[in-house]
Amino acid sequence: MSIANMIEQMAEEAKKASRQLRRIERPQKDAALESMAARLMDRQAEIIKENQRDLNAAKEAGLSAAMIDRLTLNEKVIREMAEGLREVATLPDPVGQVTGMWVRPNGLQVGRVRIPLGVIGFIYESRPNVTVDAAALCLKSGNAVILKGGSEAIHSNLILAKLLAEALIETGLPAKAVQVVPTTDREAVKIMIGLDNYLDVIIPRGGEGLIRFVAEHSRVPVLKHYKGVCHIFVDESADLETALNVCFNAKVQRPGVCNAMETLLVHERIAPEFLPAMAERFREAGVEIRGCTKTIELVPEAKPAGEEDWPAEFLDLILAVKVVPGMQEALDHIERYGSNHTEAIITRDYQNARSFLAAVDSSVVLVNASTRFNDGNQLGLGAEIGINTSKLHAFGPMGLEELTTTKFIVYGQGQIRI
Amino acid sequence: MSIANMIEQMAEEAKKASRQLRRIERPQKDAALESMAARLMDRQAEIIKENQRDLNAAKEAGLSAAMIDRLTLNEKVIREMAEGLREVATLPDPVGQVTGMWVRPNGLQVGRVRIPLGVIGFIYESRPNVTVDAAALCLKSGNAVILKGGSEAIHSNLILAKLLAEALIETGLPAKAVQVVPTTDREAVKIMIGLDNYLDVIIPRGGEGLIRFVAEHSRVPVLKHYKGVCHIFVDESADLETALNVCFNAKVQRPGVCNAMETLLVHERIAPEFLPAMAERFREAGVEIRGCTKTIELVPEAKPAGEEDWPAEFLDLILAVKVVPGMQEALDHIERYGSNHTEAIITRDYQNARSFLAAVDSSVVLVNASTRFNDGNQLGLGAEIGINTSKLHAFGPMGLEELTTTKFIVYGQGQIRI
Predict the structure, then answer these.
(1) A374 contacts in B (CB within 8 Å)?
(2) What does B344-401 look like in DSSP terms, one character per residue?
(3) Distance, CA of A185 to chain centre
(4) Do A142 and A214 belong together in one domain?
(5) How far away is chain B from the Cα of A304, in angstroms, using its nearest Cα?
(6) Taking CA B238 as the corner, what is the angle to CA A99 and CA B324, rounded to the nearest 5 degrees?
(7) Hey, are the CB atoms on A359 and B23 less than 8 Å from each other?
(8) Is A44 an 8 Å CB contact of chain B?
(9) Each residue of B310-357: pLDDT tens digit?
């Protein structure tokens, strides 16, 4: 069978499964999640054995130590995956929630009720634990999912898929609700994103190259973000200690992720006091600063920033720093170079806090808190399947509710349109 | 200037305007809508004169009387457009509404607030009054809009755009918030749907050909429906009078629209009583029936339905009729041939009503009411820019709220991620 035929058949089966899943109630879905968790714990040896095949191939291919670390499934990672499944089981089921109901003058009772999206295509790179996380979120929200992972994790993903399918069957759910594409051929991605008659949405997660490819070629709607160029603006009135702590956390706590700070904007009145102290803390953590002329005057060891540094997502211990004459210039800079992902202001000024929250067109806008909080768990969504910086459907982190839509239900008593 | 350059410049200006519009408060938007309404009433002569140019061209091109009727702007239509503008002014402004706010264990106060989508590309055919309706909804929801109407309405659309822009300027709003593409070249559509760096969403309205073209080629997310193949299922327990009235209304009241009934499914136990009576009412209204074998037994004048009739959107006084052994077969038929648009059940059975509402995967599902109620005004959204049958963003009729998205706002006091 050709790859095209195989993928189309998977999609057709996913659609059939989604039709059943739509009407499954919470207890059965939670039972499946619990069964998946138990199975991962019981069958660790098998998982580790299959993962070892991926690790051997990765070592042969000369992948970096960091990549191999991300690929590794050991007892600790497997326990975390099982805990993740159990956590999703404890979350409320969004399906069937009535988000509003009202009565029209003619007596029609009109309501909106949450329903699953249908079939989700999830395309991602490395980290095999994402396979389990994504499957759990899709299942709990009543969606069927087709998972296309990275080629380096193929054996790990296939054994995980096998165990998940066993749990589905055991608990009376359609086995095709969760499917892993059993090939490393990139052709599979091209085929998935053309199947708009079966798939309702594509969620790509990975490098900018993968995401741009999917976004440019997909006929299925795509929820995605290309990159996170996150800014913090330290306002004139900022509390110095808050500014130092929040900026340090946003840059250093985990520099390789999309919600880390990439550019620091500093009001010129506070810069002489703030920037040298900030630079000292960054120096100790090994952060390289690339600054504007005024920054370099205050932080002599800083390198001069080039035009390419302002829109850059460094994903590393590198930070672009610019001194600005006021908040308007900070807003203009964010509008020009930002990625609509996450921005924060550090301020003690009530009006500036309000204005910044209103003016910044990003999925998460914070006052006096770290950009690292743009995350479904941290914001209280319970879990997260990804972050969307397109405005459609769900702007920002997407949890269970964001994997649903609403339909209208109407209770009548013979009403006709006049 | 090439068409590509012209459209891109319009898009860039729209984006700039949207940045201003985002922060405009309700009174100013409502004042602009009022000013637009007054201007349409005051400048009727100009509008009618420009419309006459389109009408002359239409007559020369030999357009049908129905097409010419749709194209005509007379005193009555202009008054209705002005009333439409004033109605939108009375609707609540969705922008700035906080749809939820909660506190995290670390003290972060997290909220979701409604914001405009940004720039909307609206691509439509004929009816110049749609130009005014769409402009009003986009403006009220804080969005800039680029309108690409049908070539046969170009002069009408341009004079309307001119008057709307004058009203924007008079009330201190950016003139580029509402722009009409000043060309009939279809190339303009191709260029618009490629501008994903400026446009946030494309809403196409018109024939299936236009919509398929846009959906298949757009890099900007598209909200659309291809067609409405709407079903009514008359259950065994249906009240006969209700079934007759609702089905008659759904087929006959306005057969040329997307929420008219196209296929009638009848439970075999009620068919002998219901179908002959229904056929008699349809006969008087000139409805042609294309039925299954059992239908023809009960309604001898019916023509035999072919396989091509089940997925057909007739948009005319033609109805496909099928007798089914039970609700499950009705649901299967809808799943196979339906368009996820609108379906209704006529029943007196409590459990069947609930099951139908839950099982049918359409944007509006009704019990004992006409499919013709799938309409933003009728369902209480206040107004409607279109109906979306993709699951993403807003499934079903889209009003002002559906032209917005939400962003997260976070009030902190120095919180960092641990």
Answers:
(1) 408
(2) EEE-S-HHHHHHHHHH--SSEEEEEE-GGG-SHHHHTSS--SEEE-SSSS--EEE-SG
(3) 24
(4) yes
(5) 29
(6) 95
(7) yes
(8) no
(9) 999 999 999 999 999 999 999 999 999 999 999 999 999 999 999 999
**pLDDT confidence of residue B207:** 87
The answer on B147 and B81 residing in a single domain is: yes
Of the candidates B125, B132, B193, B176, which has an alpha carbon nearest to the alpha carbon of residue B154? Answer: B125
Interface residue of A103, A242, A408 to substitute, partner B, most B CBs within 10 Å: A408
Question: Could you tell me if A248 and A212 lie in one domain?
Answer: no
Report residues of chain A scoring pLDDT below 50.
none
- pLDDT value, residue A307: 97
**What integer pLDDT is reported at residue B415 of this predicted model?**
97
pLDDT at B186: 87
Same domain, B211 and B298: no
DSSP-assigned beta bridge partners for residue A320: A263, A290
This complex has an ipTM of 0.94
A117/B391 Cβ within 8 A: yes
Assess whether pLDDT exceeds 90 at residue B66.
no
Buried-exposed string B315-345: b where 16+ CB fall within 10 A, e elsewhere: eebbbbbbbbeebebbbebbeebbbbbbbbb
Task: Please identify, among B224, B253, B279, the residue that sits at the C-terminal boundary of a domain.
Answer: B224
Residues A99 and A129 in one domain: yes
In a domain, residue A302? The reply is yes
What pLDDT sits at residue A1?
A: 80
Q: What is the pLDDT of residues B149-203, one digit of tens each?
A: 999 999 999 999 999 999 999 999 999 999 999 999 989 999 999 999 999 999 9
**Residue contacts between A and B (CB atoms, under 8 Å):** 216
Domain count of the fold of chain B: 2
- Using a CB–CB cutoff of 8 Å, tell me whether A104 touches chain B: yes
Percent of chain B with pLDDT over 70: 100
Nearest to A417 among B335, B373, B410 (CB): B373
Cβ-defined contact of A392 to B393 (cutoff 8 Å): yes
Domain that holds residue A66: 3-224+394-410
Question: Which residue bears the tokens 């002599």?
Answer: A300
Pairing of strands A396-398, A386-388: antiparallel
pTM greater than the 0.80 cutoff: yes
Q: Is residue B372 part of a domain?
A: yes
A383 inside domain:
no
Q: Residue B394 falls within a domain, yes or no?
A: no
Cβ–Cβ below 8 Å for B392 and A201? yes
CATH number of the CATH domain containing B172 = 3.40.605.10
With CA atoms as reference, report the closest residue to A96 among A417, A405, A416. Answer: A405
Q: What is the tens place of the pLDDT at every residue in B374-418? A: 999 999 998 899 999 999 999 999 999 999 999 999 999 999 999
**Same-domain pairing of A152 and A286:** no
> Residue type at B31?
A
**CB–CB of B147/B179 below 8 Å?**
yes
Are B330 and B206 part of one and the same domain?
A: no
What average pLDDT does the segment B17-30 reach? 96
Quick check: A286 and A318 in contact, CB under 8 A? no
Distance from the B200 Cα atom to the nearest Cα atom in chain A, whole angstroms: 7
- Does residue B336 sit at the A interface (CB-CB below 8 Å)? no
| Portion of chain A with pLDDT greater than 90, in percent | 96
**pLDDT score of B8 more than 80:** yes
In this complex, do B415 and A380 lie within 8 Å of one another by their Cβ atoms?
Answer: no
- CATH code for the domain of B241: 3.40.309.10
- At B125-153, the pLDDT tens digits run 878 999 999 999 999 999 999 999 999 99
Angle at Cα A385 formed by Cα A380 and Cα A388, nearest 5°? Answer: 90
Q: Are residues A144 and A82 in the same domain?
A: yes
Quick one: pLDDT at residue A207? 87
User: Which residues in chain B have Cβ-Cβ distances shorter than 8 Å to A222?
Assistant: 221
pLDDT at A383: 86
